[in-house]
Amino acid sequence: MKKIHLLILLLLTANISFAKIWLPSILSDNMVLQQNSNATIWGWTTSTAETIEVIGSWNGEVVKVKAYQGVWSVTLPTIKAGGPYTVTIKGHEEIVLSNVLLGEVWLCSGQSNMQWTPENGLLNAEEEIKKANYPNIRFFQVPQTKSITPQDDLVGDWTECKPETMRKFSSVAYFYGKELYQALNVPIGLINSSWGGTPVEPWIKKELIENDEELKKAAKKLKRYEWWPGLPGSAYNGMIHPITKFNIAGVIWYQGESNRDNAFSYYKSFPLLIEFWRKEWGKEFPFYFTQIAPFNYKSKTNIEAAVVRDAQLYTMLTLPKTGMAVTNDIGNLKNIHPINKQEVSKRLALWALVKTYGVKDLMFSGPVYKSMEIKKNKIVLHFDYAENGLVKKEKELREFFIAGEDQKFYPAIAKIKNNTVVVSSKKVKKPVAVRFAFSDTALPNLYNMSGLPASAFRTDDWKIDINND
């Protein structure tokens, strides 16, 4: 009988001695945790009922939890920005995460214009790479991984920003982080989870797409390749779900070109993405995105991308805590990947600095259409973010079109009058609608006094034919 008791004791001792603790990859040395928040620290253990202790060196407080079926998670309060610190995880073994900073953490996602690195093409690339020495800016690169089921972890680690890491990281993410760092003087963590060519549907949970007939039908138009996440949910499962416990300040997003084939569903799918991600993180974080730039897709209708831009504008106007960087003046009709990523990031950062961080005396948006009034044979357009007046670059305003009740649009004469634009055409005696920059290749030139460009818009809700067959 004593031998049996001794054997049981030895087995229990062995189980305790060899118990292992491990963490998701997003929790590693060099990471940035969101300041002044509740950071989730989580992981797994081979022990079925192990007590885990987590200590942040910024205050030395111990947070304890008992693992359940090998899984554990704690809430670790963080203080104001600073560091470096350590995070220690203790069980039957000990893990120490070093060089940890507290600061502002942003998720950066989308398709190729977010993915694009300085090596892929960037204005003044070599000069920018040489200057990229910012040890308090940290990068985490999510590998391009598709999955048919939500994953718990992914491969990756946090690295400091230096020339050799910056040159292979997202240009838009880097310059966005740099703008925030220089303005706020706090550590910045940037998580890049992007994949070139992806439409919005793979970034949304599959069930949300399939439970909506319109979105389900639109998703069938998506291109499918064996190596590429063409199915709804496939990018979310592999590249977003594993990090949804990691507290973030917000998201920046650059995507939309690949939704031209189902552009009208983007009015629904893009807001759905934002609302879904916020629900997954359990917080209404700010979501700032880039309106896609002009490009010659050589389509027959030349309007699919314009509809996507309109859906992006609609999303900004209808969802709280969203903002849009307009890029219709820095695109390239021959290059779907414009190289002036610095200005894209600056315009995204303006939204964050003003709306998220409360920086004063900055204009953060170009003119946005607000309302119109018909005055005889002219239409007067009113704008938000134009209180100090409007300006044009070059001699005449471009890309304004006007229509009567026959819904035929004609090029219009457009004149700035203080903070309004007056539009007319000799071919339209009784105007009822205006469209501005409403084509794939439109290159408008209307700005506010801060030099930020006006978004494309339309005053009508008429049916648009985007059949490109």
From TrEMBL:
Pfam families hit by this protein: SASA (PF03629)
Domain of life assignment: Bacteria
Gene3D superfamilies the record matches: SGNH hydrolase (3.40.50.1110)
Domain Sialate O-acetylesterase: from-to ranges: 104-337
Keywords (A to Z) from UniProt: Hydrolase
Record's keyword annotation contains rRNA processing: no
SUPFAM superfamilies: SGNH hydrolase
PANTHER family: SIALATE O-ACETYLESTERASE
Protein name in the entry: Sialate O-acetylesterase
Originating species: Jejuia spongiicola
